[in-house]
């Protein structure tokens, strides 16, 4: 029998979960810390709220310093450039700055620019009509995309239809915790989208987001989300408990109202799906507020 010593890192890597693990954050130091704990990090997601919480950015804001839009973009770029080499093939998601009136053309302009920052970028666009137009144009140019603030099966169907023919995987990010906050069982949305995509061509991957607990993480594995983005504190908890995986008898301890399954035809044009959702609107407003909190003449 071989007595080759197995390092701690190798032992941890051998226990890879069924979903790719992304760190949901805006601090390269945190990503390094999690990589040390788990032995790997597959990817990273960022957004304007998380960038505003980056220690350096938060320190500046606390000291009364504010940035111009171009300084903020330079700071964002520096942060993702530090994170980029720390992660595996799930890449680093970078979010465009969009309010409720930002046209697709402007989102695309930002997306192209952000895509040039690092070789493993996924550009995040909101799940709105303008966001989907920008995503459609992006995939046609070979830019990888992650459609964020997804709160309904219809929105996920529209993402699928708008990005049909993409040459690289497209991510859709359903926000589990915010649906829970609204009294629903957010994990049902993951299950419903996975079931819907089972009859598709596989070009859209489910990235479970707004993960708040170990139960969310384990249930994301259980439902077969291809990726899950997780705050550092939940990953620390998972690591501390020995990186458990759900077994055959796993059941999710849900308290919220069930989200009903809808029979949707993925071959329909994306514009035919009703993609309006109050939580998408609120999510955009929150990102705008957090972004503006770091800017000069914050309003
Ligand atoms: O991955 C999306 C995430 O950053 C939003 O999380 O906890 O603000 O709903 P949360």
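Q: What amino acid sequence fits the structure above?
A:
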């Amino acid at each position: 029998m071989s007595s080759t010593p197995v390092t701690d890192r190798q032992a941890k890597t051998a226990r890879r979960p069924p979903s790719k693990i992304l760190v949901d954050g805006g601090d390269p130091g945190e990503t390094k810390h999690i990589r040390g704990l788990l032995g790997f990090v597959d990817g990273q997601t960022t957004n304007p709220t998380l960038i505003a919480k980056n220690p350096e950015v938060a320190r500046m804001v606390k000291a009364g310093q504010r940035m111009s839009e171009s300084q903020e973009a330079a700071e964002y770029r520096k942060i993702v450039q530090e994170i980029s080499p720390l992660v595996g093939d799930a890449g680093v998601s970078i979010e465009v700055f969009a309010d409720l009136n930002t046209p697709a053309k402007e989102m695309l302009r930002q997306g192209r620019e952000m895509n040039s920052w690092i070789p493993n970028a996924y550009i995040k666009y909101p799940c709105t009509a303008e966001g989907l137009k920008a995503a459609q144009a992006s995939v046609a140019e070979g830019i990888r995309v992650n459609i964020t603030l997804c709160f309904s099966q219809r929105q996920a169907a529209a993402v699928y239809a708008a990005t049909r023919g993409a040459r690289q995987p497209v991510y859709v990010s359903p926000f589990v915790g915010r649906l829970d906050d609204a009294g629903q069982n957010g994990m049902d949305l993951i299950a419903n989208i996975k079931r819907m995509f089972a009859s598709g061509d596989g070009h859209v991957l489910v990235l479970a987001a707004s993960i708040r607990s170990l139960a969310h993480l384990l249930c994301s594995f259980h439902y077969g989300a291809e990726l899950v983005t997780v705050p550092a504190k939940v990953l620390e908890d998972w690591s501390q408990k020995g990186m458990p995986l759900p077994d055959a008898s796993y059941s999710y301890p849900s308290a919220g109202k069930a989200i009903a399954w809808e029979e949707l035809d993925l071959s329909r044009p994306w514009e035919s799906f009703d993609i309006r959702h109050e939580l998408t609107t609120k999510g955009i407003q929150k990102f705008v507020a957090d972004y503006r909190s770091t800017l000069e003449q914050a309003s």
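Q: And what stands out in the fold?
A: The two ends are 68 Å apart (CA to CA).
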